[in-house]
């Protein structure tokens, strides 16, 4: 039997506001428990919400970036359910009249083709608090921290347009790149700034009707998302092939143990009893407001990619990689501004720098080397102060913080390339006199085979110079001296 | 001193005939002596009251005082008072001491008003008789076998028994006007959005509105001057210019068009009440007003619409009482579900639980359209009735309640009969208009009856003017329950 | 509404009802529902539901921190707090 997977995503994005969506408490990450939960966030009796202007501005930016209709009238509703991290006993969210309507996002697949993923809508809502299951408190209890309660979120709901984990991850990465480029979210997934719920179902190829879906909640890394999808697709196919049926359920994936299970607290079907929140009035925005935001939109990844091709003559492929992440793109442009060499800067960022970031699992925003330092390194390559090989050594030192700049490291470690003709001639003479047999072979060889044989002598000279000899000059001197012996 | 209106007390304080401290002590003494009979207070804050009276006296001495400086008042126990228990008449909040003040509490305190204590009420403001309080029923000072009305029954009884110069109340479906009628006082429900709801524990957020309960319309105007106003902390508070409500009290009523809705005088209206209302209307004609029969055709749907909308909103508003962050928590919960279910079972009284269940039902899957959505549509029809009526008339007059105060226990076993008490007051809340109840005489059984006047949006000044002129002409408002 | 419906509803609203009270509660709720069922008589075709008495729109707040840490004062009325956390019986996800 051949199976087909259908995937839709619900993405929670914490908006980069200073304060909560309905209170003036700070949203700063990492504070002591409940020190950023004010009376409104705790749902103390008699308290009332007042909506944060900035949350609407940021949500509108997202809507414009995905070419969606902006809800000129958006309405907050109460979604009723009891949970200790939900102080009011209802979540204030949007349902029928969200701030962002239907839109779409293009993703690039591995084969280079693009696919459009439709977004059903995106709505504003408040985040919940956190339940801690162990800590400095009585065993058998959970501790509730409501600092996160009331942090503004947009929940982006996609259509079920993805058909495998790779597409889902590409879509998730695209959204990440979009919201960070817009500056509406810090993108810190490890802090929960972006969380993904994945709806998965499978059906036989050719079948029209969708299979029963499950929802795997709260994935906060692309890697876990990929793993969770693969595992769930396999599970569903196994169940169906064994003649079983899929239960519609909410599941949790544990990325550390690589296991998944159904959520117990969601076993009973919930009746959320949505109704318009009487404490909040409809939010009305007009075309003028929307246009104003449109004009303030930063350059988005797609446009930036195009500009990189035109302005820096980069290949489509390189431009795409460099523009996808705002921090990478900024890093690139700041480097080029100094080096004036787009190709070499791009190569270093996509090559050595990316490899090192990946290996150490560091985001480029936390990169230990800044664009000025990298540019300095590249300039030393360009003016032949150092060879490519030495440059890698200098890069490594910079990464480890062994010096303030490439110049300082080159100076301190004496890595400057030897370009002094006298010194190089001395080294060449020494190599030639120590390599009688090779010189003989060279002399006897066919003239068209000789250039190939030059490599040996170059290597010896480089070795003698500890890699600091200027390779181009060595070549020239060697050729001259060997030819004199013919 | 307890017979004086606020207006008279202001003069007395300014002329140094007595100090706020003396006045406050006098009221505290009365509360201690008399309130056992009426149960109108849940808590009395003697020390705080005397401390603020002292401050008020200093302000008066320096000539820095506003109208309410030094006047002893009491707050319905759903207005949060910093450091003072705010129970909402519920076991759920029996241990709740708010760390903040309601905006109106703050406004009145800043004006120098002295808070004597917190008054009894139906639990979470759900009731029309003040029998659902965790702290026991309040008794009507006119006849302690009868109810004072509700839910602001304690606030009403406290004035009727002259245990405060004025009180605050809240009105979601008649909870200021109906007890004012039953207790022979003046009770104003302002336009929705006129008075901040910040710090007022919510029952039904789109209907709740705070207002003053006083002896006279003039006193209500003085209180409203301080209570009303825009509040950035309440999204539904309206940023509209606030007039001086005392400025137009003496305007002539010559040419005033009074609408009399035919639907308010049909089956179910007590004869004695009808008679008193008719004579009050005749009084208005003497003042130069003209009477116009009008129709508010959807009146009969107000009770059903209200008893969907208010419980629906309440069911969500009361979800926060879960035993986690404040309020009643059951002993030794076996698990989280037990914590929720038992804390709420023990903390809430029967009427509150009933309304939560009705509200949850009206919002639940499959019933939302038939109940909640339908009720919201009917709400618009009811509002439209008033919008149409106010094209023809300036104010609308009629009874506040179908009967005078009924006996304690008479309706408490039958929720529906209790709900029908609110038939004339609910439409005002559903539409969001302002309304006032003023005394219009006693029945042969010596029970007070109130006349209800309903005004257009933000027409409180007009309403108070119309009420004040009646009180200039009559002395129903001077009748007192106690003759001491 | 039957007994089971009331029990399910009470569960949804997280309220325990003693078994000897279920009859009473069911009767009362049914009486209330027959009262509100009068709504069905109303012709509401094309009438827009009204959620709010004034047809006003939401005023928005500037994104400025106005609330300081008040944890100690806010938790002074809490039934169970340890290490700054509100305690509840173990939450099972």
Description:
The complex is a heterotrimer of chains A (486), B (484) and C (93). Chain A has helices spanning 53-65, 165-182, 222-241, 287-296, 301-312, 316-324, 326-339, 342-360, 371-382, 388-399, 406-413, 421-433, 436-444, 450-464, 471-485, and strands at residues 3-14, 73-74, 76-80, 90-94, 103-108, 114-126, 130-132, 141-145, 152-158, 194-204, 214-219, 250-254, 259-262, 275-276, 283-284. Chain A has 486 residues and is an alpha+beta fold. Chain A has three domains: 3-290, no CATH class; 299-413, no CATH class; 421-485, Arc Repressor Mutant, subunit A (Orthogonal Bundle). In chain A, helix 2 packs antiparallel against helix 3 (222-241). Chain B has helices at 6-14, 20-38, 46-62, 103-110, 153-160, 177-183, 217-227, 271-286, 302-317, 336-347, 350-363, 369-389, 415-419, 426-431, 460-473, and strands at residues 41-44, 72-76, 114-119, 166-171, 186-189, 209-214, 257-261, 290-294, 395-399, 434-442, 448-455. In chain B, helix 9 packs across helix 12 (369-389). Chain C has a domain at 1-39: Histone, subunit A (Orthogonal Bundle). Helices cover 32% and strands 8% of the residues of chain C. In chain C, strand 1 and strand 2 (85-89) form a beta hairpin. Classes of the chains: A alpha+beta (486), B alpha/beta (484), C mainly alpha (93). Chains in contact: A-B, A-C, B-C. Chains B and C meet through helix 9, helix 10, helix 11, helix 12 and helix 13 of B and helix 1, helix 2 and strand 2 of C. Strand 8 (141-145) of chain A pairs antiparallel with strand 2 (85-89) of chain C, so a sheet runs across the interface.
How would the blueprint of this fold be written?
The complex is a heterotrimer of chains A (486), B (484) and C (93).
Chain A: E1 3-14, H1 53-65, E2 73-74, E3 76-80, E4 90-94, E5 103-108, E6 114-126, E7 130-132, E8 141-145, E9 152-158, H2 165-182, E10 194-204, E11 214-219, H3 222-241, E12 250-254, E13 259-262, E14 275-276, E15 283-284, H4 287-296, H5 301-312, H6 316-324, H7 326-339, H8 342-360, H9 371-382, H10 388-399, H11 406-413, H12 421-433, H13 436-444, H14 450-464, H15 471-485
Parallel strand pairs in A: 11-12
Antiparallel strand pairs in A: 1-9, 1-10, 2-15, 3-4, 3-14, 5-6, 6-9, 7-8, 10-11, 12-13
Chain B: H1 6-14, H2 20-38, E1 41-44, H3 46-62, E2 72-76, H4 103-110, E3 114-119, H5 153-160, E4 166-171, H6 177-183, E5 186-189, E6 209-214, H7 217-227, E7 257-261, H8 271-286, E8 290-294, H9 302-317, H10 336-347, H11 350-363, H12 369-389, E9 395-399, H13 415-419, H14 426-431, E10 434-442, E11 448-455, H15 460-473
Parallel strand pairs in B: 2-3, 2-4, 7-8, 7-9
Antiparallel strand pairs in B: 1-3, 4-6, 5-6, 5-10, 9-11, 10-11
Chain C: H1 3-12, H2 22-36, H3 71-75, E1 81-82, E2 85-89
Antiparallel strand pairs in C: 1-2
């Amino acid at each position: 039997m051949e199976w087909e997977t259908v995937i839709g995503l619900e993405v929670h994005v914490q908006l980069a506001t200073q304060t909560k969506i309905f209170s003036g408490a700070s949203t700063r990450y990492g504070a002591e428990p409940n020190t950023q939960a004010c009376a409104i966030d705790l749902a103390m009796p008699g308290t009332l919400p007042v909506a944060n202007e900035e949350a609407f501005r940021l949500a509108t930016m997202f809507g414009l970036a995905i070419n969606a209709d902006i809800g000129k009238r958006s309405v907050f509703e109460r979604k009723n359910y009891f949970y200790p991290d939900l102080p009011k006993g209802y979540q204030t969210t949007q349902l029928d009249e969200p701030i962002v309507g239907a839109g779409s996002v293009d993703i690039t697949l591995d084969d280079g083709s693009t696919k459009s993923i439709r977004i059903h809508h995106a709505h504003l809502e408040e985040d919940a608090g956190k339940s801690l299951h162990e800590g400095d408190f009585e065993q058998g209890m959970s501790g509730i921290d409501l600092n996160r309660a009331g942090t503004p979120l947009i929940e982006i709901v996609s259509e079920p347009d993805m058909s495998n984990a790779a597409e889902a991850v590409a879509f998730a990465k695209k959204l990440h790149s979009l919201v960070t480029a817009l500056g509406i979210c810090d993108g810190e997934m490890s802090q929960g700034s972006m969380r993904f719920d994945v709806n998965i179902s499978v059906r036989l190829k050719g079948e029209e009707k969708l299979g029963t879906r499950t929802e795997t909640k709260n994935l906060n890394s692309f890697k876990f998302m990929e793993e969770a999808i693969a595992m769930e697709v396999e599970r569903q196919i196994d169940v169906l092939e064994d003649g079983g049926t899929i239960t519609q359920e909410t599941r949790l994936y544990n990325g550390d143990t690589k296991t998944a299970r159904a959520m117990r607290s969601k076993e009973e079907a919930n009746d959320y009893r949505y109704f318009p929140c009487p404490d909040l009035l409809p939010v009305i925005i007009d075309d003028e407001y929307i246009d104003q935001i449109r004009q303030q939109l930063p350059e988005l990844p797609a446009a930036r990619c195009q500009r990189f091709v035109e302005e820096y003559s980069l290949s489509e492929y390189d431009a795409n990689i460099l523009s996808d992440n705002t921090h990478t793109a900024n890093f690139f442009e700041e480097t080029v501004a100094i080096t004036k060499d787009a190709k070499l800067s791009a190569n270093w960022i996509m090559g050595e720098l990316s490899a090192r970031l990946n290996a150490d699992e560091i985001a480029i925003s936390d990169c230990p080397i800044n664009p000025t330092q990298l540019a300095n390194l590249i300039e030393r390559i360009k003016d032949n102060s150092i060879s490519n090989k030495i440059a890698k050594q200098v890069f490594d030192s910079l990464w480890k913080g062994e010096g303030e700049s490439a110049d300082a490291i080159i100076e301190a470690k004496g890595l400057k390339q030897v370009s002094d003709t006298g010194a190089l001639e001395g080294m060449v003479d020494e190599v030639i006199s120590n390599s009688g047999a090779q010189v003989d072979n060279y002399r006897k060889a066919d003239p068209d085979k000789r250039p190939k044989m030059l490599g040996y002598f170059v290597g010896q000279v480089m070795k003698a110079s500890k890699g600091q000899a200027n390779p181009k000059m060595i070549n020239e001197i060697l050729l001259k001296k060997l030819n004199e012996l013919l | 001193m307890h017979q004086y209106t606020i207006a008279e007390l202001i003069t007395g304080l300014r002329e140094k005939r007595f100090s706020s401290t003396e006045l406050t002590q006098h009221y505290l003494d009365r509360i201690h002596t008399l309130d056992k009979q009426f149960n109108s207070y849940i808590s009395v804050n003697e020390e705080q009251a005397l401390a603020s009276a002292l401050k008020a006296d200093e302000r008066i001495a320096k000539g820095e005082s506003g109208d309410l400086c030094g006047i002893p008042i009491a707050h319905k126990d759903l207005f949060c008072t910093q450091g003072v228990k705010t129970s909402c008449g519920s076991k759920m909040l029996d241990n709740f001491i708010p760390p903040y003040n309601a905006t109106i509490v703050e406004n009145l305190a800043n004006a120098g008003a002295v808070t004597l204590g917190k008054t009894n009420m139906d639990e979470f403001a759900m009731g029309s008789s003040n029998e659902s309080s965790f702290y026991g029923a309040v008794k009507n000072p006119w006849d302690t076998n009868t109810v004072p009305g509700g839910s602001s029954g304690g606030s009403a009884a406290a004035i009727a028994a002259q245990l405060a110069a004025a009180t605050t109340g809240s009105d979601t479906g008649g909870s200021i006007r109906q007890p004012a009628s039953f207790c022979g006082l003046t009770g104003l429900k302002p336009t929705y959005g006129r008075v901040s709801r910040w710090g007022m524990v919510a029952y039904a957020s789109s209907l709740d509105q705070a207002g003053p309960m006083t002896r006279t319309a003039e006193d209500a105007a003085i209180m409203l001057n301080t209570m009303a106003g825009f509040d950035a902390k309440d999204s539904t508070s309206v940023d509209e210019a606030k007039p001086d409500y005392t400025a137009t009290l003496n305007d002539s009523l010559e040419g005033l068009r009074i609408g009399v809705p035919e639907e308010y005088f049909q089956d179910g209206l007590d004869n004695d009440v009808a008679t008193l209302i008719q004579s009050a209307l005749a009084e208005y004609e003497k003042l130069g007003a003209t009477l116009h029969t009008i129709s508010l055709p959807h009146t009969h749907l107000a009770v059903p619409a209200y008893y969907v909308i208010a419980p629906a909103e309440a069911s969500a508003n009361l979800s926060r009482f879960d035993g986690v962050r404040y309020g009643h928590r059951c002993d030794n919960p076996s698990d989280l579900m037990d914590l929720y279910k038992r804390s709420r079972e023990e903390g809430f009284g029967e009427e509150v639980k009933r309304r939560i269940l009705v509200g949850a039902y009206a919002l639940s899957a499959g019933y939302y359209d038939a109940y909640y959505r339908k009720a919201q549509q009917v709400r618009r029809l009811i509002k439209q009735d008033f919008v149409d009526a106010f094209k023809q008339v300036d104010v609308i007059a009629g009874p506040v309640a179908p009967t005078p105060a009924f006996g304690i226990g008479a309706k408490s076993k039958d929720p529906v009969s209790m709900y029908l008490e609110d038939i004339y007051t609910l439409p005002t809340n559903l539409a969001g208009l302002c309304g006032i109840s003023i005394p219009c005489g006693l029945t042969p059984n010596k029970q007070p009856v109130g006349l209800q006047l309903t005004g257009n949006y933000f027409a409180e000044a007009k309403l108070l003017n119309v009420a004040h002129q009646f009180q200039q002409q009559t002395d129903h408002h001077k009748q007192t329950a106690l003759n001491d | 509404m039957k007994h089971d419906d009331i029990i399910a509803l009470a569960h949804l609203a997280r309220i325990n009802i003693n078994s000897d009270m279920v009859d009473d509660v069911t009767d009362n709720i049914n009486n209330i529902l027959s009262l509100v069922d009068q709504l069905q008589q109303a012709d509401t075709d094309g009438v827009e539901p009204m959620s709010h008495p004034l047809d006003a729109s939401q005023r928005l707040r500037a994104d400025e921190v106005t609330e300081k840490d008040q944890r100690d004062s806010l938790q002074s009325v809490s039934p169970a707090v340890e290490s700054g956390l509100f305690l509840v019986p173990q939450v099972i996800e």
